[in-house]
Structures are given as C-alpha cells and as structure tokens.
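Worked example 2:
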Amino acid sequence: MPKNFKPQEPVLSIATPLNFDAQAIPIHEVCTDQPKVIAHYLDPFKLKHRFQNPPVWQPEITDENRHVIAADIISKRQAAGKVTRAAVLIPLLLKRDGLSVLLTQRTDHLHDHAGQISFPGGRMDPSDSDPNHTALRESEEEIGLDPQGVEIIGHLPQYLTVSGYSVTPVVGLVKPQAEYALDAFEVADVFEVPLHFLMDPANHQVRVWESDQGSRRFYSMPYENRFIWGATAGMLRNLYHLLKV
C-alpha cells in the first residue's frame, strides 16, 4: 500500500489545520440516551446471522460524508481518472472472554495523521478481485495478519472520506495470533478493544469543531490511553446501528 494513504484518515475538512488535535476539541454530548447492544448479539454465531439476515436499519451519515457529497469530491476524482475505491478490515478477534476489535496505531514520524488509530486497509489494486481481497491483502502487509485465520462475515455501508475515497468496511472473525509482523514504517502498534465497550453508546462522544467553514461534528471513543475518532469511529457507529436493532 502506498505509504501516504490511509482510507480512514479522520480528516474533518479540507481546511483542517496542520497538527489538528481532535482530543482537544470539546465534548458536545455523550450518547447515553441510546441503547447499548445486547450482549446476546455480540456472540460470533449471532453476529454471522445478523449479517446474513440483516434487519431494516439506517446507516448514520457523518458530517465528513455530508461534506464529501456536497463538494462532489469523489466524482471529481473519478473524472480526473483517480482511484476512488478502498477497503478496510474490521477484525473481530475470537477471545475466550468475548470478541475484541483489533486496531492499529500509526507511527509518530509520518507526515500526515501521525499516531492516529485506524483499521488495517488501503486502496484497491487493479489485481484485487473485490474489497475482501483488498482488506485481507492490506492486513497481511500492514500487520502480518494471516488471511487463512479470517472468516469474512459481511460488509458495512461504504464510508466516504474527504480525501476522495469510497471505503468498504469488511467485517471478519479473526483467530488471534501470538504476534503480529508490523510494517515498521507505517504501524507503530496494534491493540485490542473489547467489542462490548465499542458497542455501548455511553462510550461514544460527540465533539464539535468550530472553524471558518462552520461547525463539524465527529465521534470519538476513548479507550484507556487510546483515542479512537473520525472515520474509524464513524464506521464503528454503523456497526453499532446494525447490531442495536
């Protein structure tokens, strides 16, 4: 994967200032009025059944997605002959005490979005047969995830980024590995977050950034010393919406 690209880069606006500190943005609200996902639905078998037999549900449109649509960013990239498709893997680790989500932390030396948290993934190569192929290939390249240990169970709605990518989140049940082979240039660390924590809206914060272009809302899901936000949090919100029904 080209090292200057992460499809889930949590860019809020083309005018986002350099060294933007999302964690310093005030919390507008916490989603405590929304129901948490029942533990019953966080079982691997129930998750597979949910993706195979999805209920009627409404994906959430974030401010980032609205901006991309309003500015017609993706069609402009397509008209210029630029690649617009990408995929990420949402790896659900099969742990004895319940499912956990495997996330990556970017290296601090990167020019853009250093130290931020994301899913493994990247742009689709011409040789990739589908988003599943892309997500598995990129996960193997970035963190050494064995594709033979991944059972893909479904997809979430495409997520649009201001960098002009339409990202397919691929959800997979993953056998934990004793260790991960990290791309030293791009990935500083991998870590796990319990799925039940991420599927509890009491842990979902809405932050509002005020700029000359107006206000922008984005989600954050702090966990211990990790700050999950932007498009990564936006994709997790859609997983929440699918499972809460």
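The two ends are 36 Å apart (CA to CA). The first helix runs from residue 44 to 52.
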